[in-house]
């Protein structure tokens, strides 16, 4: 996302459908980077999100992630909304926040939700947006496990003793298109491009501009690329302003890790810098990240200490 300054709207609302697979005894795997279901006999362990060095405000992200982990992880008989409200309350949140997270409930005997990444959509002195990318595994009555996930724009306001979640806006990428461009097909086939569920569906829906996808393919020749957000799940406006973000127009990429190295870590800022310069050299006009670089195409602020933003206008 470009420099921050919010609106209550996000680029869509909903959850990526899960896909059933047969259980295989003795195996336990994570969802594949392409978003396809993984064969597994048991649910993975529910591991809470933990901050890394370099986080601007770990407590803010902890509040955002704890809500989704609580609502999206449930045991037999607790997949209903009333139970989800109780879990939200037990985690220190307003029970009604669970209502917008109903897609993380429903069919299945039990479920585990794990945060893949949490990045800022914007952070100001008294308000914040945290874009929480989650994977979910559900154990089904027939013994299979289905995998899915979504990206949720979690809005918070400053309060004492801790920030409060005020709104949750799940992504809704839309249905898959009837055909894909050649560039979109290359992105989906490239194992070096790791797309979370909402971003994967954005590509399949045909809502991401080919110039963005071409930059992804090019960057993946240099690095393994972990994408956090493409289009859906991102605020419609640059946080704290009335300016439309490039993301809902399908003209931007947010990347949280390269070569399995999270960009929030100060030790990886040189890697972030290299990728930012690479993006500008390959057509990006608006590039943000954790390091301030000289040139009108670059920016850095508190929001972009945990990812790089690559925006294209052609």
Q: Could you explain the architecture of this structure?
A:
By secondary structure, this protein is of the alpha+beta class. The protein folds into two domains: 16-170, Roll (Nuclear Transport Factor 2, Chain: A); 182-311, Muramoyl-pentapeptide Carboxypeptidase, domain 2. It is 22% helix and 25% strand. The chain is built from six helices and twelve strands. It has helices spanning 58-72, 81-90, 182-189, 197-205, 210-222, 269-281, and strands at 16-21, 110-123, 127-139, 145-157, 164-170, 193-194, 225-229, 252-258, 261-262, 286-288, 298-299, 308-311. Strands 6, 7, 8, 9, 10, 11 and 12 form a seven-stranded mixed beta sheet that branches. Strands 1, 2, 3, 4 and 5 form a five-stranded antiparallel beta sheet that branches. The longest helix is centred in the N-terminal third of the chain and has 15 residues, at 58-72. The two termini are 17 Å apart.
Secondary structure elements and pairings:
Layout: E1 16-21, H1 58-72, H2 81-90, E2 110-123, E3 127-139, E4 145-157, E5 164-170, H3 182-189, E6 193-194, H4 197-205, H5 210-222, E7 225-229, E8 252-258, E9 261-262, H6 269-281, E10 286-288, E11 298-299, E12 308-311
Parallel strand pairs: 6-7, 10-11
Antiparallel strand pairs: 1-4, 2-3, 3-4, 4-5, 7-8, 8-9, 8-12, 10-12
Summarize the structure.
The chain has 314 residues and is of the alpha+beta class.
Largest sheet: 7 strands, mixed
Total tally of structural domains? 2
Radius of gyration: 18 Å
**What does the average pLDDT come to?**
88
**What spatial form do the alpha-carbon principal axes imply?**
globular
């Amino acid at each position: 996302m470009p420099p921050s300054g919010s609106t209550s709207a996000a680029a869509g609302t909903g959850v990526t459908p899960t896909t059933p697979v047969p259980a295989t005894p003795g195996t336990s795997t994570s969802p594949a980077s392409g978003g396809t279901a993984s064969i597994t006999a048991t649910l993975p362990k529910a591991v809470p999100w933990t901050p890394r060095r370099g986080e601007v405000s770990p407590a803010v992200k902890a509040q955002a992630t704890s809500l989704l982990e609580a609502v999206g992880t449930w045991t037999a008989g607790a997949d209903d909304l009333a139970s989800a409200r109780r879990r939200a309350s037990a985690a220190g949140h307003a029970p009604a926040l669970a209502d917008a997270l109903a897609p993380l409930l429903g069919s299945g005997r039990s479920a585990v939700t794990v945060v893949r990444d949490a990045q800022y959509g914007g952070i100001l002195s008294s308000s914040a947006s945290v874009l929480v990318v989650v994977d979910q595994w559900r154990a089904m009555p027939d013994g299979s496990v289905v995998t899915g996930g979504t990206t949720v724009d979690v809005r918070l306001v400053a309060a004492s003793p801790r920030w409060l979640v005020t709104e949750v806006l799940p992504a809704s990428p839309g249905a898959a298109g009837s055909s894909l461009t050649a560039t979109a097909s290359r992105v989906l086939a490239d194992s070096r491009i790791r797309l979370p569920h909402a971003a994967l569906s954005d590509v399949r829906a045909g809502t991401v501009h080919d110039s963005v996808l071409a930059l992804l393919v090019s960057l993946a020749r240099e690095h393994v690329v972990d994408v956090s957000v493409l289009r859906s799940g991102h605020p419609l406006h640059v946080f704290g302003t009335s300016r439309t973000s490039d993301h809902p127009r399908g003209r931007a990429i947010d990347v949280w890790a390269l070569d399995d190295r999270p960009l929030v870590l100060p030790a990886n800022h040189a890697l972030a810098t290299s990728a930012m310069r690479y993006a500008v050299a390959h057509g990006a006009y608006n590039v943000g990240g954790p390091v301030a670089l000289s040139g009108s195409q670059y920016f850095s602020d508190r929001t972009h200490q945990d990812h790089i933003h690559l925006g294209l206008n052609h």
